[in-house]
Amino acid sequence: MSIRHLLAAATAALIGSLVLAAPAVANVSVQADPVSAYTLTAGRLWSVVAALIGLAGVVIGGLAMARSAGRLGIGSGRRGAIVALVTGLAGAVIGGVVVAAAEGGPGTGYGIVGGYVALVVGLIAMVLGGLVLARSRRQAG
Fold first, then answer.
1. What whole-number distance in Å separates Cα of residue 46 and Cα of residue 101?
2. SS3 141
3. CA triplet 98, 127, 42: central angle to 5 degrees?
4. CA angle 132-126-56, nearest 5°?
5. Gap between the Cα atoms of 88 and 121, Å rounded
6. Sign of CA dihedral 40, 114, 20, 25
7. Which DSSP string do the residues of 53-69 spell out, in sequence order?
């Protein structure tokens, strides 16, 4: 898979998350019975998806940082940095939507803990991508 395809997929994931995540998370019904710890609710599903997207951004950002520190040339981690920024943003946005839509605390099935994890992991991915972009600009100038 080329970087262009990866960027297109990340952009589609971001747009899809903004369009599809908000109504899906907002329609989580209030349940009278307590939710089991093993029940996969819509909020928990979206928080897991957001955390995995953010984790992919952290891995890509880490690889881009390793490439930019090596002897592979100027700007060799720039595309990976942009992908890390986009996937980190997507994970943080979805995690933020989950946290905003949660009506209860941890253990209620709304996925609030996973939403906070997705926010943190997405922010880490964005920081890694930003550091690589700053490093590539410094080396180029």
1. 11
2. coil
3. 15
4. 95
5. 7
6. positive
7. HHHHHHHHHHHHHHHHH
* Interatomic CA distance for residues 91 and 57, integer angstroms: 8
The amino acid present at 1, given as its one-letter code, is M
What does the block give as tokens for 69? Answer: 């520190």
Report pLDDT digits (tens) over 26-40: 555 444 456 777 788
Q: CB-based burial of residue 50 (10 Å sphere; 0-12 exposed, 13-18 middle, 19+ buried)? A: buried
Question: What backbone phi and psi angles, to 5 degrees, belong to 99?
Answer: -65, -40
The answer to whether 14 touches 54, Cβ cutoff 8 Å, is no
User: Per residue in 80-119, pLDDT tens?
Assistant: 899 999 999 999 999 999 999 988 888 888 889 999 999 9
Rounded CA separation 95/61 (Å): 19
Contact between 137 and 105 (Cβ < 8 Å): no
Residue tagged 């996925």 (tokens): 111
The rounded distance, in Å, linking the Cα atoms of 100 and 89 is 16
pTM: 0.71
Can you tell me the distance from the alpha carbon of 88 to that of 54, in angstroms, rounded to the nearest whole number?
Answer: 5
pLDDT of residue 16: 59
DSSP state of 104: S
